[in-house]
Amino acid sequence: MSLLSWVAALISGFIIVFALMPSLIRYFRARKEGQMIREEGPKWHEKKSGTPTMGGLLFIIAILVTTLWVGFWQGLLQPTTWILMFILVLYGALGFWDDSIKLWRKQNEGLKAWQKLLGQIVGAVVFTLVYQNEHLTMGLRIPGVGDWSLGIWYMIFVIIWLVGFSNAVNLTDGLDGLVAGQATIAFGAYAIIAWAQQQYNVALFCIAVVGSLLGFFVYNHKPAKIFMGDMGSLALGGALAAVSILVHHELSLLIIGIIFVIETASVMLQVASFKLTGKRIFLMSPIHHHFEMKGWSEWKIDIVFWSIGLVAAIISVATII
Predict the structure, then answer these.
(1) CB 55 within 8 A of CB 252
(2) Distance from C-alpha of 191 to C-alpha of 202, rounded to nearest angstrom
(3) Nearest 5 degrees, angle CA 244-CA 154-CA 140?
(4) Which one, of 109, 208, 117, lies nearest residue 162 by Cα?
(5) Dist. CA 104–CA 101, nearest whole Å
(6) What does the entry list as the binding residues for Mg(2+) (predicted)?
(7) Which of 29, 149, 213, 291 is positioned for an S-S bond with 296, CB 3.0–4.6 A?
(8) So where are the chain's domains?
(9) Annotation-wise, does 230 bind a ligand?
C-alpha cells in the first residue's frame, strides 16, 4: 500500500463527509428530526434538544465508498476487508433502527436491550466464522488471545469483545466531539499497527475511518451541528473491536481504547455502588458527566480525554511495533 493510496483514502473519506454533511443537516432540520435529550442528564444539555442526529449515516457511507474504491485500485478487497465492512454496516443498522425509533416516537428509548444484543451477537458470530475460516484456509494460527482456542471459547471472547466495545463507544458518546476525536486516535493507532504487519487492507479501512471522522468532526465539535447517534457510535465500537482482533492484538484495545474502558467502568461502578450501598461514587455517570457537574467545560473534558487517549495509543503502538 503506497503513501499515495493512504493520502487518497484519507482525503476521500474527509471530502465525502465534509461536502455532503450540510445537506444532511438541512434535511434533518427540515423534517424536525432531532435528538431527544435524557431527562436525567445535565440540565444544560437541554439546549441541545432538537440537534440533528444520525450523522453516522454519512460517515459510514464515506468509509464504505472509500474502502471499496481505494481497495479495488490497490487490490486490497480481501475477506477480512469485507467482514470489517459487514460489522460496520450491521452495527450501524442496529443503531439506525434504534435512532429511528427515538426520532419517530419522540422519546429517548429506542430498541429493547435484548433486540440490540441479539443483533450484535449475530454479527460477532458471523465475524468469527469468517475470520477463523480465512486463517485455517491459509494454514495460519491466530496469535494473541486467539491462541487460547479456535473453537467455541474464542467465539465467546469475540462476542464479548464486539458487543462490549460497541456499547462502550456508545456510552462515551455524550459530549460534542468526544467520540469523534477519540475514535480518530484509536483507528489511527491501528492503521499504523496494521501497516507495520503488512495488513494493508486493514490499514486502508482504518485510514478511511480516520478521514471520514475528521470530516465529521468539523460539524460535530462544540457546539455540535449534528450528532453521530447510536448508528455511528455502535458501528465505530464494533469495527474498532474487529480491527483489534484482525491485527492479533485484541487486548491492546484496553489501552488504545482506554477512554472507552474508563467510561464503561464508571457506569458499572456507579450502578454496583448504588445497588449495594445506596450511594453514588460519581456525581453522574458516564464519567464525562461527572466532570461536567464539577464545572469542567465540554472542551476541557474533550481535550483532557483525547490527551489521555493519545498518550495511551502512542505507548501501545510503540510497544507493539
Answers:
(1) no
(2) 7
(3) 70
(4) 117
(5) 5
(6) 170, 230
(7) 291
(8) 3-251
(9) yes
CB 127 within 8 A of CB 158: yes
Q: Is 108 helix (H, G, I), strand (E, B) or coil?
A: coil
Question: Three-class SS of residue 170?
Answer: helix
Cell of 197: 504487519
Give the SS3 label for residue 42.
coil
Task: Report yes or no: 129 and 97 within 8 Å, Cβ to Cβ.
Answer: no
The gap from C-alpha 105 to its chain's centroid, in whole angstroms, comes to 25
pLDDT tens per residue, the chain (321 residues)? 778 999 999 999 999 999 999 999 999 888 776 655 555 555 555 666 678 888 999 999 999 999 999 999 999 999 899 999 999 999 999 998 887 776 666 555 656 777 888 989 999 989 988 887 766 554 444 444 544 445 678 888 999 999 999 999 999 998 999 999 999 999 999 999 999 999 999 999 999 999 999 999 999 999 999 999 999 999 999 999 999 999 999 999 999 999 999 999 999 999 999 999 989 999 999 999 999 999 999 999 999 999 999 999 999 999 998
Cα 12–Cα 95–Cα 234 angle in degrees, nearest 5: 65
Full-model pTM: 0.90
Can you list the pairs that 286-292 forms with residues at least 24 positions away whose Cβ atoms lie under 8 Å? 286/171, 286/172, 286/174, 287/262, 287/263, 288/172, 288/174, 288/175, 288/178, 288/263, 289/41, 289/42, 289/174, 290/266, 292/42, 292/44, 292/175
